[in-house]
Amino acid sequence: MKRLVTAIVLLAVIVAISCFSLHVVERDLGEISRFALELREETPSSELETKSKELLRLWNEKEELLVIFLRHDILDELTARIAELPSLARNGDYGLFYSGVDSILARLEDLLDAAQPSYRNLL
Question: How far apart are CA 103 and CA 89, in angstroms?
Fold first, then answer.
């Protein structure tokens, strides 16, 4: 009987941790995606550099918790892409800036899809 109770408690703990990690990943990546989408819809202006620095600050803040749940190589790639944005905005390379934001949005969408439990992800 003790083994059954222990097994049920462990199963409940595993499910709770999985639900928590899914919630954190969806919340943080969703927030970053929304901010990046706002940045994508922004017209070229002097505020673009400031807003891209804000995106970098938000990313660095959220990445501290995301490293627990996601692969580090993907997070490093996103960090490098997001870190390029302020200098692209400062130099007026708006084409490269917006294509960088688009690639960041696509990568974030891929991460969100991979985090969702689905038949495609489980198989």
Answer: 16
What is the CA angle 80-55-27, rounded to 5? 100
DSSP track, the chain: -HHHHHHHHHHHHHHHHHHHHHHHHHHHHHHHHHHHHHHHHSPSSTHHHHHHHHHHHHHHHHHHHHTTTS-HHHHHHHHHHHHHHHHHHHHT-HHHHHHHHHHHHHHHHHHHHHHS--HHHH-
> CB–CB of 32/58 below 8 Å?
yes
The model's pTM is: 0.83
> 87: pLDDT confidence band, cut at 50, 70 and 90?
very high
- Alpha carbon distance 46, 41 (integer Å): 14
- For residue 44, the Cα-to-chain-centroid distance in whole angstroms is 24
